[in-house]
Amino acid sequence: MTHVAAPLPDGLSQEQMDAEVAKVQAGTDGAVHPPRGFPPYRSSTLRHPRQPLIPVRDPEAVELSGPAFGLTDVTALDRDLTRQHAGEPLGERITVTGRVTDRQGRPIRRQLVELWQANASGRYAHQLDQHPAPLDPNFTGFGRCLTDDEGRYSFTTIKPGAYPWRNHVNAWRPAHLHFSLFGTAFTQRLVTQMYFPGDPLFAHDPVLQSVTDPAARARLVAAYDHGLSVPEWSLGYRWDIVLDGPSATLFEEDR
Amino acid sequence: MSLVPTPSQTVGPFYGYALPFPGGAEVAPVGHPDLITVHGYVYDGAGQPVPDALLETWQPAPDGSRGGAPGSMRRDPVTGRIVGRDGVTFTGFGRIATDADGHYAVRTLPPGGVPYLCVLVFARGLLHHLYTRAYLRAEEDALLSAVPAERRGTLLAVEERPGTYRFDIRLQGPGETVFLDFG
Ligand SMILES: [Fe+3]
User: Fold this and answer.
1) pLDDT digits (tens, 9 = 90+) for A91-117
2) Where is the Intradiol ring-cleavage dioxygenases domain (chain B) (predicted)?
3) A56 within some domain
4) Do B6 and A45 touch (CB under 8 A)?
5) What is the predicted ipTM?
6) Element (H, E) at B144
7) How far is ligand 1, taken at its centre, from the CA of residue A196, in Å?
8) What are A173-186's pLDDT values in tens digits?
9) The domain that contains A213 carries what CATH number?
Protein backbone atom coordinates (compact mmCIF):
# COMPACT_ATOMS: atom_id res chain seq x y z
CA MET A 1 0.00 0.00 0.00
CA THR A 2 1.30 3.42 -0.90
CA HIS A 3 0.90 5.97 1.84
CA VAL A 4 -0.37 9.32 0.60
CA ALA A 5 -0.10 12.13 3.14
CA ALA A 6 -2.49 15.06 3.12
CA PRO A 7 -0.91 18.24 1.69
CA LEU A 8 0.86 20.42 4.22
CA PRO A 9 -0.51 23.90 4.90
CA ASP A 10 3.05 25.18 4.73
CA GLY A 11 4.80 23.43 1.87
CA LEU A 12 8.34 24.43 2.76
CA SER A 13 10.99 21.97 1.59
CA GLN A 14 13.71 20.70 3.93
CA GLU A 15 16.27 22.88 2.13
CA GLN A 16 14.15 25.98 2.66
CA MET A 17 13.60 24.99 6.30
CA ASP A 18 17.33 24.44 6.88
CA ALA A 19 17.99 27.92 5.44
CA GLU A 20 15.33 29.44 7.70
CA VAL A 21 16.86 27.73 10.75
CA ALA A 22 20.36 28.97 9.82
CA LYS A 23 19.04 32.52 9.43
CA VAL A 24 17.31 32.53 12.82
CA GLN A 25 20.32 30.95 14.53
CA ALA A 26 22.67 33.56 13.05
CA GLY A 27 20.76 36.26 14.92
CA THR A 28 21.04 34.63 18.36
CA ASP A 29 23.71 34.43 21.03
CA GLY A 30 24.79 31.40 23.04
CA ALA A 31 21.65 30.95 25.12
CA VAL A 32 21.35 27.80 27.20
CA HIS A 33 17.64 27.26 26.52
CA PRO A 34 15.70 27.60 23.28
CA PRO A 35 13.76 30.82 22.83
CA ARG A 36 10.07 30.22 23.52
CA GLY A 37 9.25 31.51 20.07
CA PHE A 38 11.29 29.84 17.31
CA PRO A 39 9.57 30.44 13.95
CA PRO A 40 11.00 27.34 12.21
CA TYR A 41 9.11 25.27 14.80
CA ARG A 42 5.69 26.17 13.43
CA SER A 43 3.71 25.15 16.50
CA SER A 44 5.51 27.79 18.56
CA THR A 45 4.11 30.70 16.53
CA LEU A 46 0.85 31.24 18.43
CA ARG A 47 1.83 29.57 21.69
CA HIS A 48 4.50 31.70 23.30
CA PRO A 49 4.23 35.00 25.15
CA ARG A 50 5.33 38.15 23.38
CA GLN A 51 5.51 40.23 26.55
CA PRO A 52 8.73 39.97 28.56
CA LEU A 53 8.65 37.61 31.54
CA ILE A 54 8.39 39.32 34.92
CA PRO A 55 11.40 38.58 37.13
CA VAL A 56 10.70 37.17 40.61
CA ARG A 57 13.64 37.51 43.00
CA ASP A 58 11.67 36.92 46.19
CA PRO A 59 13.33 34.53 48.66
CA GLU A 60 9.86 33.80 50.06
CA ALA A 61 8.55 32.62 46.69
CA VAL A 62 6.71 29.32 47.03
CA GLU A 63 8.30 28.16 43.77
CA LEU A 64 11.64 27.81 45.58
CA SER A 65 10.23 24.68 47.19
CA GLY A 66 8.67 21.78 45.32
CA PRO A 67 6.72 18.54 45.43
CA ALA A 68 8.18 15.41 46.98
CA PHE A 69 7.94 11.85 45.71
CA GLY A 70 8.63 8.60 47.43
CA LEU A 71 8.59 4.85 47.31
CA THR A 72 4.79 4.76 47.28
CA ASP A 73 4.87 6.63 43.97
CA VAL A 74 7.15 4.28 42.03
CA THR A 75 7.77 0.54 41.77
CA ALA A 76 11.14 -1.03 41.12
CA LEU A 77 9.80 -2.31 37.79
CA ASP A 78 8.77 1.13 36.55
CA ARG A 79 12.30 1.80 35.29
CA ASP A 80 12.26 -1.18 32.93
CA LEU A 81 10.11 -0.37 29.90
CA THR A 82 10.79 -3.81 28.42
CA ARG A 83 8.98 -5.57 31.30
CA GLN A 84 5.53 -3.99 31.11
CA HIS A 85 3.91 -6.62 28.87
CA ALA A 86 3.92 -10.40 28.49
CA GLY A 87 6.46 -10.48 25.66
CA GLU A 88 9.70 -8.75 24.69
CA PRO A 89 9.30 -5.52 22.77
CA LEU A 90 10.82 -5.26 19.29
CA GLY A 91 13.96 -3.19 18.88
CA GLU A 92 17.44 -2.65 20.19
CA ARG A 93 17.50 -3.04 24.00
CA ILE A 94 19.34 -0.20 25.71
CA THR A 95 20.07 1.07 29.18
CA VAL A 96 20.25 4.80 29.81
CA THR A 97 21.77 6.14 32.99
CA GLY A 98 23.28 9.32 34.35
CA ARG A 99 23.35 11.80 37.20
CA VAL A 100 20.95 14.64 37.90
CA THR A 101 22.53 17.63 39.62
CA ASP A 102 21.80 21.29 40.16
CA ARG A 103 24.00 24.05 38.74
CA GLN A 104 26.26 23.77 41.80
CA GLY A 105 26.89 20.11 41.00
CA ARG A 106 24.94 18.89 44.01
CA PRO A 107 23.02 15.65 43.41
CA ILE A 108 19.24 15.87 43.09
CA ARG A 109 18.28 13.11 45.53
CA ARG A 110 15.15 10.95 45.51
CA GLN A 111 13.29 13.00 42.95
CA LEU A 112 11.07 11.75 40.17
CA VAL A 113 12.37 11.15 36.63
CA GLU A 114 9.82 10.24 33.95
CA LEU A 115 10.62 8.97 30.46
CA TRP A 116 8.31 8.49 27.47
CA GLN A 117 9.09 7.61 23.88
CA ALA A 118 8.04 6.14 20.55
CA ASN A 119 8.58 2.43 19.87
CA ALA A 120 11.32 1.00 17.67
CA SER A 121 9.26 1.82 14.56
CA GLY A 122 8.81 5.46 15.52
CA ARG A 123 5.18 5.17 16.69
CA TYR A 124 3.75 6.42 19.98
CA ALA A 125 1.13 4.44 21.90
CA HIS A 126 -1.10 7.50 21.57
CA GLN A 127 -4.45 7.69 19.78
CA LEU A 128 -3.45 10.83 17.90
CA ASP A 129 -0.23 9.39 16.51
CA GLN A 130 -1.34 8.25 13.08
CA HIS A 131 2.10 7.58 11.63
CA PRO A 132 1.55 4.34 9.65
CA ALA A 133 4.25 2.39 11.47
CA PRO A 134 3.31 -0.64 13.57
CA LEU A 135 2.33 -0.39 17.20
CA ASP A 136 4.13 -2.91 19.39
CA PRO A 137 1.78 -4.84 21.70
CA ASN A 138 4.72 -5.39 24.05
CA PHE A 139 5.75 -1.78 24.35
CA THR A 140 3.96 1.23 25.85
CA GLY A 141 6.94 3.52 26.19
CA PHE A 142 6.56 5.10 29.62
CA GLY A 143 8.83 4.63 32.64
CA ARG A 144 9.58 6.32 35.95
CA CYS A 145 12.23 6.15 38.61
CA LEU A 146 13.48 8.03 41.63
CA THR A 147 17.06 9.30 41.67
CA ASP A 148 19.29 7.70 44.30
CA ASP A 149 21.41 9.44 46.93
CA GLU A 150 24.03 10.35 44.30
CA GLY A 151 21.37 11.72 41.96
CA ARG A 152 21.59 8.73 39.60
CA TYR A 153 18.71 7.51 37.46
CA SER A 154 18.60 4.43 35.25
CA PHE A 155 16.19 3.02 32.66
CA THR A 156 16.09 -0.11 30.53
CA THR A 157 14.16 0.40 27.30
CA ILE A 158 14.50 0.01 23.54
CA LYS A 159 15.95 2.52 21.11
CA PRO A 160 13.06 4.50 19.57
CA GLY A 161 12.73 5.00 15.83
CA ALA A 162 12.77 8.31 13.96
CA TYR A 163 9.32 9.53 12.96
CA PRO A 164 7.83 12.03 10.51
CA TRP A 165 5.91 15.11 11.59
CA ARG A 166 4.10 17.78 9.69
CA ASN A 167 6.26 20.82 10.36
CA HIS A 168 7.40 21.06 6.72
CA VAL A 169 7.74 18.68 3.75
CA ASN A 170 9.74 15.57 4.68
CA ALA A 171 10.19 16.65 8.32
CA TRP A 172 11.57 13.79 10.46
CA ARG A 173 12.39 13.86 14.15
CA PRO A 174 15.70 12.22 15.09
CA ALA A 175 15.27 9.33 17.55
CA HIS A 176 14.77 10.76 21.03
CA LEU A 177 13.60 9.99 24.56
CA HIS A 178 11.35 12.52 26.32
CA PHE A 179 12.40 13.22 29.91
CA SER A 180 10.59 14.98 32.76
CA LEU A 181 12.55 15.92 35.89
CA PHE A 182 11.79 17.41 39.29
CA GLY A 183 14.47 19.21 41.25
CA THR A 184 14.34 20.30 44.86
CA ALA A 185 12.31 23.35 43.81
CA PHE A 186 9.50 23.99 41.33
CA THR A 187 11.84 26.47 39.62
CA GLN A 188 14.14 23.57 38.69
CA ARG A 189 11.44 21.68 36.80
CA LEU A 190 12.63 20.45 33.40
CA VAL A 191 11.03 18.71 30.44
CA THR A 192 13.51 17.91 27.70
CA GLN A 193 14.58 15.32 25.11
CA MET A 194 17.63 13.06 24.92
CA TYR A 195 19.14 12.23 21.52
CA PHE A 196 21.42 9.43 20.32
CA PRO A 197 24.96 10.22 19.11
CA GLY A 198 25.67 10.65 15.42
CA ASP A 199 22.10 10.89 14.16
CA PRO A 200 22.09 12.29 10.58
CA LEU A 201 18.74 13.99 11.23
CA PHE A 202 20.14 16.46 13.80
CA ALA A 203 20.87 19.14 11.19
CA HIS A 204 17.33 18.94 9.79
CA ASP A 205 15.33 19.06 13.04
CA PRO A 206 13.95 22.48 14.06
CA VAL A 207 13.17 21.18 17.57
CA LEU A 208 16.77 20.26 18.36
CA GLN A 209 18.02 23.29 16.39
CA SER A 210 15.82 25.56 18.51
CA VAL A 211 18.69 25.28 20.97
CA THR A 212 20.74 27.76 19.00
CA ASP A 213 24.12 27.29 20.69
CA PRO A 214 26.03 24.22 19.35
CA ALA A 215 27.58 23.50 22.76
CA ALA A 216 24.15 23.59 24.38
CA ARG A 217 22.73 21.26 21.71
CA ALA A 218 25.56 18.82 22.38
CA ARG A 219 24.36 18.56 25.99
CA LEU A 220 21.14 16.95 24.73
CA VAL A 221 23.05 14.10 23.07
CA ALA A 222 23.87 11.01 25.16
CA ALA A 223 27.25 9.28 24.94
CA TYR A 224 27.50 5.65 23.94
CA ASP A 225 29.36 3.94 26.79
CA HIS A 226 30.63 0.46 26.01
CA GLY A 227 31.30 -0.11 29.70
CA LEU A 228 27.56 0.21 30.32
CA SER A 229 26.70 -2.32 27.64
CA VAL A 230 25.78 -5.74 29.02
CA PRO A 231 27.08 -8.82 27.14
CA GLU A 232 24.36 -10.69 25.25
CA TRP A 233 21.79 -8.18 26.54
CA SER A 234 21.87 -4.41 25.96
CA LEU A 235 23.76 -1.33 24.74
CA GLY A 236 24.57 1.40 27.25
CA TYR A 237 24.18 5.17 27.01
CA ARG A 238 25.19 7.80 29.54
CA TRP A 239 23.41 11.12 29.84
CA ASP A 240 23.89 13.55 32.72
CA ILE A 241 21.34 16.27 33.41
CA VAL A 242 21.85 19.65 35.05
CA LEU A 243 18.74 21.41 36.36
CA ASP A 244 18.49 25.18 36.03
CA GLY A 245 16.79 27.59 38.39
CA PRO A 246 17.22 28.54 42.04
CA SER A 247 16.00 26.57 45.04
CA ALA A 248 15.41 27.79 48.60
CA THR A 249 18.93 26.74 49.64
CA LEU A 250 20.62 28.03 46.48
CA PHE A 251 18.90 31.35 46.89
CA GLU A 252 20.66 31.89 50.24
CA GLU A 253 24.08 31.12 48.76
CA ASP A 254 23.68 33.17 45.61
CA ARG A 255 22.99 36.35 47.55
CA MET B 1 31.39 24.68 40.85
CA SER B 2 29.02 26.05 38.26
CA LEU B 3 27.56 23.67 35.68
CA VAL B 4 25.73 24.64 32.51
CA PRO B 5 22.07 23.60 32.56
CA THR B 6 20.59 21.01 30.25
CA PRO B 7 18.42 22.82 27.65
CA SER B 8 14.65 22.55 27.71
CA GLN B 9 12.71 20.91 24.87
CA THR B 10 8.99 20.83 24.15
CA VAL B 11 6.75 18.28 25.85
CA GLY B 12 5.37 17.58 22.35
CA PRO B 13 1.91 16.27 21.49
CA PHE B 14 2.21 12.67 22.74
CA TYR B 15 2.80 12.84 26.52
CA GLY B 16 -0.83 11.92 27.20
CA TYR B 17 -0.32 8.24 28.03
CA ALA B 18 2.68 9.04 30.21
CA LEU B 19 2.49 12.17 32.34
CA PRO B 20 -1.17 12.64 33.37
CA PHE B 21 -2.22 10.28 36.16
CA PRO B 22 -5.57 9.38 37.73
CA GLY B 23 -6.39 11.88 40.46
CA GLY B 24 -3.81 14.37 39.19
CA ALA B 25 -6.39 17.16 39.49
CA GLU B 26 -7.59 16.02 42.95
CA VAL B 27 -5.09 17.71 45.22
CA ALA B 28 -7.53 18.00 48.15
CA PRO B 29 -8.12 14.90 50.26
CA VAL B 30 -11.42 13.20 49.42
CA GLY B 31 -14.46 14.96 50.90
CA HIS B 32 -12.47 17.73 52.59
CA PRO B 33 -14.86 20.46 53.79
CA ASP B 34 -12.54 23.31 52.72
CA LEU B 35 -12.19 22.13 49.12
CA ILE B 36 -11.85 24.82 46.46
CA THR B 37 -11.97 24.43 42.68
CA VAL B 38 -9.74 26.44 40.36
CA HIS B 39 -10.61 26.06 36.69
CA GLY B 40 -10.34 27.84 33.36
CA TYR B 41 -9.28 27.67 29.75
CA VAL B 42 -5.90 27.89 28.05
CA TYR B 43 -5.92 30.00 24.86
CA ASP B 44 -3.36 30.57 22.12
CA GLY B 45 -2.48 33.82 20.37
CA ALA B 46 -5.45 33.46 17.98
CA GLY B 47 -7.84 33.09 20.91
CA GLN B 48 -8.27 29.38 20.18
CA PRO B 49 -8.40 26.90 23.08
CA VAL B 50 -5.27 24.79 23.54
CA PRO B 51 -6.42 21.16 23.79
CA ASP B 52 -3.01 19.64 24.48
CA ALA B 53 -1.56 21.73 27.29
CA LEU B 54 -0.34 20.14 30.51
CA LEU B 55 -0.64 22.22 33.68
CA GLU B 56 1.06 21.56 36.98
CA THR B 57 0.18 23.32 40.21
CA TRP B 58 2.21 23.61 43.39
CA GLN B 59 1.29 25.30 46.66
CA PRO B 60 1.82 25.25 50.43
CA ALA B 61 -0.48 23.15 52.59
CA PRO B 62 -3.23 25.07 54.46
CA ASP B 63 -0.89 25.21 57.50
CA GLY B 64 1.72 26.99 55.34
CA SER B 65 4.17 24.09 55.15
CA ARG B 66 6.00 23.82 51.84
CA GLY B 67 7.59 20.40 52.11
CA GLY B 68 5.06 18.61 49.94
CA ALA B 69 4.43 14.96 50.73
CA PRO B 70 5.07 11.76 48.81
CA GLY B 71 2.05 9.87 47.58
CA SER B 72 0.90 11.92 44.59
CA MET B 73 0.95 8.85 42.38
CA ARG B 74 -0.09 5.80 44.38
CA ARG B 75 0.39 2.63 42.37
CA ASP B 76 -1.33 -0.71 42.23
CA PRO B 77 1.07 -3.21 43.82
CA VAL B 78 -0.05 -5.96 41.42
CA THR B 79 -0.05 -4.20 38.04
CA GLY B 80 2.30 -1.34 38.94
CA ARG B 81 -0.13 1.08 37.32
CA ILE B 82 -0.78 4.43 38.91
CA VAL B 83 -4.23 4.24 40.48
CA GLY B 84 -4.46 7.71 41.98
CA ARG B 85 -3.84 9.40 45.30
CA ASP B 86 -4.21 7.89 48.72
CA GLY B 87 -7.21 10.15 49.42
CA VAL B 88 -5.95 11.56 52.72
CA THR B 89 -2.55 13.15 52.14
CA PHE B 90 -2.29 16.73 50.92
CA THR B 91 0.74 16.74 48.60
CA GLY B 92 0.34 20.26 47.19
CA PHE B 93 1.06 19.00 43.67
CA GLY B 94 -1.45 18.86 40.83
CA ARG B 95 -1.06 17.74 37.22
CA ILE B 96 -3.88 18.31 34.74
CA ALA B 97 -4.05 17.94 30.95
CA THR B 98 -6.47 20.31 29.23
CA ASP B 99 -9.50 18.80 27.55
CA ALA B 100 -10.45 19.02 23.87
CA ASP B 101 -12.00 22.42 24.67
CA GLY B 102 -8.83 23.69 26.37
CA HIS B 103 -10.43 23.46 29.83
CA TYR B 104 -8.81 22.34 33.07
CA ALA B 105 -10.00 22.11 36.67
CA VAL B 106 -8.08 21.41 39.86
CA ARG B 107 -9.69 20.69 43.23
CA THR B 108 -7.48 21.69 46.12
CA LEU B 109 -7.31 23.41 49.52
CA PRO B 110 -6.58 27.10 50.12
CA PRO B 111 -2.81 27.68 50.26
CA GLY B 112 -1.50 28.63 53.71
CA GLY B 113 0.42 31.89 54.16
CA VAL B 114 0.29 33.06 50.54
CA PRO B 115 -2.66 34.04 48.36
CA TYR B 116 -1.64 32.10 45.23
CA LEU B 117 -1.21 28.74 43.54
CA CYS B 118 1.94 28.30 41.44
CA VAL B 119 1.08 27.23 37.89
CA LEU B 120 3.36 25.68 35.31
CA VAL B 121 2.35 25.35 31.63
CA PHE B 122 3.70 22.79 29.16
CA ALA B 123 2.42 22.36 25.61
CA ARG B 124 3.30 21.27 22.13
CA GLY B 125 4.71 24.43 20.59
CA LEU B 126 6.24 25.62 23.85
CA LEU B 127 9.97 24.94 23.74
CA HIS B 128 10.37 26.00 27.36
CA HIS B 129 7.66 25.76 30.00
CA LEU B 130 6.01 28.87 31.49
CA TYR B 131 5.42 29.83 35.11
CA THR B 132 2.54 31.92 36.34
CA ARG B 133 0.48 32.30 39.52
CA ALA B 134 -3.25 32.11 40.17
CA TYR B 135 -3.97 34.63 42.94
CA LEU B 136 -7.09 33.77 44.90
CA ARG B 137 -7.03 37.14 46.67
CA ALA B 138 -5.78 40.48 45.33
CA GLU B 139 -3.45 40.83 48.30
CA GLU B 140 -0.46 43.06 47.55
CA ASP B 141 2.82 41.16 47.46
CA ALA B 142 6.22 41.55 45.84
CA LEU B 143 5.09 40.16 42.50
CA LEU B 144 1.73 41.91 42.15
CA SER B 145 3.44 45.21 43.01
CA ALA B 146 6.05 44.63 40.31
CA VAL B 147 3.51 43.94 37.56
CA PRO B 148 2.20 46.91 35.55
CA ALA B 149 -1.33 47.72 36.76
CA GLU B 150 -2.91 47.02 33.38
CA ARG B 151 -1.56 43.44 33.34
CA ARG B 152 -2.16 42.60 37.01
CA GLY B 153 -5.65 41.26 36.37
CA THR B 154 -4.25 38.36 34.35
CA LEU B 155 -2.89 36.91 37.61
CA LEU B 156 -6.15 37.23 39.56
CA ALA B 157 -8.52 34.28 39.72
CA VAL B 158 -12.17 35.38 39.79
CA GLU B 159 -14.39 33.83 42.46
CA GLU B 160 -17.44 32.78 40.44
CA ARG B 161 -19.26 31.44 43.47
CA PRO B 162 -18.02 30.54 46.95
CA GLY B 163 -15.10 28.12 46.56
CA THR B 164 -14.99 28.13 42.74
CA TYR B 165 -12.38 30.27 41.02
CA ARG B 166 -11.95 30.96 37.31
CA PHE B 167 -8.38 31.38 36.05
CA ASP B 168 -7.83 31.54 32.28
CA ILE B 169 -4.37 31.42 30.74
CA ARG B 170 -3.66 33.33 27.53
CA LEU B 171 -0.33 32.28 26.04
CA GLN B 172 -0.17 35.25 23.65
CA GLY B 173 -2.04 38.29 22.40
CA PRO B 174 -4.62 40.59 24.02
CA GLY B 175 -4.82 39.92 27.75
CA GLU B 176 -1.66 37.81 27.61
CA THR B 177 -1.07 36.22 30.99
CA VAL B 178 1.88 37.49 33.01
CA PHE B 179 4.56 34.78 33.00
CA LEU B 180 7.42 34.67 35.45
CA ASP B 181 11.20 34.35 35.39
CA PHE B 182 12.96 33.06 38.50
CA GLY B 183 16.50 33.49 37.11
FE1 LIG C 1 8.68 12.76 20.43
Assistant:
1) 999 999 999 999 999 999 999 999 999
2) 35-115
3) no
4) no
5) 0.96
6) helix B142-146
7) 13
8) 999 999 999 999 99
9) 2.60.130.10
